[in-house]
Structures are given as C-alpha cells and as structure tokens.
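Lab notebook: predicted structure, single chain.

Context: the supervisor wants predicted structures on file for every construct in the current expression panel, including those that have not yet been purified. This is the next one on the list. No modifications to the sequence; it matches the entry in the shared construct table.
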Amino acid sequence: MVGDEMKVGLVRHYKVKKDYPPQFLISAQELEQWFAEYDESDIELGQTDLGGIEWNRCYASDMPRAARTAKHIYDGTIMHWNMLREVPPPSFRTKVRLPLMMWAVLLKTLWFKASRSMPESMNDTRKRADAALDEIFRQGDGNVLIVSHAALMMAMRKALLARGFRGPKFGTPENGKLYLFEN
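Prediction complete. Output recorded below exactly as produced.
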C-alpha cells in the first residue's frame, strides 16, 4: 500500500522526431500510417531534472519513445510495461479527407464520448491508470518514476490526487519534464 512520504514522478517521453503530414488534407489511411510511423520514430534526447530525489524504481511504457526516454534519464533497472502505453488510435473506415487538426478534434471527441470506434474510452484509460497504480503501490518500491504518455499521465494525475497525493496541475504534459506527486 502507499507508504508515508512516498513520491511518484510522472515524465512524458521526449519529443518524437516525426513531422506532421505535409499535405493539408489527409485520409484516414494516411492518418493511420502517420500514427504507425510516429510510434516507431526516434526521439530528441534532452535533459530531465529529477529533483535530486532517490528514485527506487522506474516503470516505463514499453513503447520505444518512452522506453528510450526512461533509459536516458534513469540509471537503474526499468520495468517496461504495456499498461503504461499511450491510448491507441482508432481505425477509421472512410474515404473522407480532413485537415490534421480536424482529425485530432474528432479523436479527442470520440475518446471523451466513449465511442465504439475507439479502442479505449477515457473511462477505460482512467481504469487502466488506476490498475497500473494499484500494482505499482502493491510492489512497495518506495519512490517511483513513471515514464509514459500524455493521455495516460493526465489520467494518472487524477488517480494520484484521488489517493491523497499532492502535485501540479497540467494540461498536456511537456516532453521530458518531471511532474512530482507526494502523499
């Protein structure tokens, strides 16, 4: 269970070296291809201030961008875990071509509304974040660093606050920045 004076650090992976599609209008198939390439792209290594805290364990998404970030910022053993992955994008079966920003709005709307076209709803993401934290706290590792992705970090923030942790507010978390939560 959560011990006294435990710290949880959330870090979003470093910036991905993948430009947005150059054309204004893109098809669902082009969007899907872009997501696949983004998932496999390299990252721009940076510097992360870990606050001088002794981190007893690091958990990271098993996606390449988060795994590489974790390896760059943490010297110890890293537990790579699919529970910390980014929310998967849907597969659209349409011939419609839209600007990238319209696709982004559509994706976020479908995620919030728990659309059946989304592989995971916002509620599912919250449950996954809670389950991941349950397992991490069950391990009793002390101070833990979690390297993950934007949407999951937003869900983890809410889950940590609900468990009595104090920590910063954030919208979309910055790449490579430590967000510290303490109980």
